[in-house]
Amino acid sequence: MALDLGDRLFAAAYERCLPDSPAAFAWRRHLLRQARGVTVEIGAGTGANLPAYPPVERLILTEPSPAMRRRLAPRAAAAGAELLDASAEHLPFAAHTIDTVVCGLVLCSVPDQAAALAEIRRVLVPEGRLLLFEHVRSDEPEAAAWQDRVDLPWRVLARGCHLNRDTLDAIRAAGFTLAELHPLELGMPGERYVPHIAAVAVAPSVA
User: Measuring CA to CA, which residue among 47, 35, 106, 132 is closest to residue 82?
Assistant: First the structure.
């Protein structure tokens, strides 16, 4: 079946748009070093995180985009990872069977962020870990107002990515506890207006 042209173009440009400074990769590696047991990366894209993973019991990559999956498949196979066609809102795992979930620049663009976080909480074991590398809503009023102004055209250009989502509040509202939270300086142009964070969130101790 022919792939959607917009999907193909976005997949082709995706890696060039990722934060790729040494600082960004160092933070990815810091987070992924904490992956344990059965680990699921949601929206794995073209596999940018694969070089930073430690050995884990089982690594599963989910990616709903056909064009992304086509680019990701050989990298996943080379890394010994499983690749599934699944969205963040509908994960094909039984409740409380996943030890670690990884989200890297994903929660900005999932269609239903609250549903995605509820689904992540459902599949994680009690006190399982959600490892996050995301861009978030700015704490600075001027920068947040700019994010609100450009959010709609940005979403059209970036295939549903929201600049102004308050992802940290959404994580807390979903019942997670933030064990680590690091505002990042990545050396990117205009990063005041697109602040990034690295974070570790812990699922509740009781299922």
Answer: 47
| CA quadruple 180, 59, 110, 46: dihedral sign | positive
- The percent of residues in the chain predicted with pLDDT above 90, rounded, is 71
Q: Which two tokens stand for residue 99?
A: 């030890």
pLDDT tens-digit series, residues 145-194: 999 999 999 888 887 899 999 999 999 999 999 999 999 887 777 788 99
Query: How many C-beta atoms surround the C-beta of residue 153 within 10 A?
Result: 9
Burial-class residue 46 by CB neighbours within 10 Å (0-12, 13-18, 19+). Answer: buried
Structure tokens at 11: 């997949």
> Locate tokens 């039984």: which residue?
94
User: pTM (2 decimals)?
Assistant: 0.90
- Check pLDDT > 60 for residue 9: no
Query: Residue 48 has what pLDDT?
Result: 87
**Residue showing tokens 């074991």:** 125
Dihedral over alpha carbons 25, 197, 123, 35 (to 10 degrees) = 30
87: helix, strand or coil: strand
Query: d(Cα 198, Cα 207) in Å, to the nearest integer?
Result: 25
Return the CATH architecture of domain 5-202.
3-Layer(aba) Sandwich (3.40)
Cα 189 from Cα 194, distance rounded (Å): 9
- Domain definitions of the chain by residue range: 5-202
Average of per-residue pLDDT across 50-66 = 95
Half-sphere exposure of residue 88: CA atoms within 13 angstroms, side-chain side:
25
